[in-house]
From TrEMBL:
Family, similarity comment: Belongs to the HAD-like hydrolase superfamily. CbbY/CbbZ/Gph/YieH family.
Any one GO MF annotation of this record: phosphoglycolate phosphatase activity
Catalytic activity: 2-phosphoglycolate + H2O = glycolate + phosphate
Phylogenetic classification of the source organism: Bacteria, Pseudomonadati, Bacteroidota, Sphingobacteriia, Sphingobacteriales
EC number(s) reported in the record: 3.1.3.18
Protein name: phosphoglycolate phosphatase
Pathway where it operates: Organic acid metabolism; glycolate biosynthesis; glycolate from 2-phosphoglycolate: step 1/1
InterPro entries listed in its UniProt record: HAD-like_hydrolase_sf (IPR050155), HAD-like_sf (IPR036412), HAD-SF_hydro_IA (IPR006439), HAD_2 (IPR041492), HAD_sf (IPR023214), PGP-like_dom2 (IPR023198)
One record GO biological process: DNA repair
Keywords for the protein's UniProt record, in alphabetical order: Hydrolase
Species whose genome carries this gene: Mucilaginibacter rubeus
């Protein structure tokens, strides 16, 4: 790991899906339950399909998954999936990456911690509630709050909390692009769902690697 990153930042902003936890298996169950309520979708919702759109904004997800639907149908499916997703995740949750809580506790002693995700409203709160992690984070922002792209939400967190030297940790090219647009350095979590070939200040192969890096 690169010791030169120690004491370089005052804060860490995290992506959620593919960075802090993997909820794709149970999201697939939730979305399958939702689409079974309409008669105009016949295909099956799989974990692989959910993984393929992880990191996209909630609106863009359903445009990509169901391009053949009209606008009204897509809005109905999106609404059904949003409700079903939160209901099922409240019960089943997701899979936390190994060493998550221990690493967050370590990092929170030295850095201000935040979450910025492209998820729907209530999703970050569910993650924090379910895993009793509120105490580690000072704030969060998501696509569902204002409908803004991730770069704008990163900027909001930086400005609202007066962060001087933040770094963003994410697992997809979309995360990297958003951090770059927001003017924030990027650490690539290569254990997640995406591929980022270059441009990051560091790469971690497991979440606990942040303890050595930062």
């Amino acid at each position: 790991m690169n010791d030169s990153l120690k004491n370089k930042y005052d804060s860490i902003i995290f992506d959620l899906d593919g960075t802090l936890w993997d909820s794709t298996a149970n999201v697939a169950l939730a979305w399958q339950a939702a689409i079974s309520k309409v008669d105009y979708i016949k295909e099956e919702m799989t974990q692989e399909r959910v993984r393929s759109i992880t990191g996209m904004t909630y609106d863009a997800i359903f445009d990509k998954l169901f391009p053949e639907l009209n606008i009204e149908q897509r809005k109905e499916v999106q609404s059904l999936c949003a409700v079903s997703e939160l209901e099922i995740l409240h019960t089943k949750g997701g899979e936390l990456y190994p060493g998550l809580e221990e690493t967050l506790k370590y990092l929170a002693a030295n850095y201000k911690l935040y979450i910025v995700s492209n998820c729907q409203n209530g999703y970050i709160e569910l993650f924090l509630d379910l895993n009793q992690l509120h105490g580690h984070f000072l704030g969060h922002q998501c696509f569902g709050t204002k409908g803004n792209p991730k770069a704008d939400n990163i900027k909001d967190v930086v400005n609202d909390h007066q962060l001087k030297a933040p770094v963003y940790v994410g697992d997809t090219m979309g995360d990297y692009n958003a951090a770059k647009q927001a003017g924030v350095p990027f650490i690539f979590a290569n254990y997640g769902f995406g591929v980022v070939p270059d441009g990051m200040v560091a790469t971690i192969s497991n979440f606990a690697g942040l303890k050595d890096l930062l």
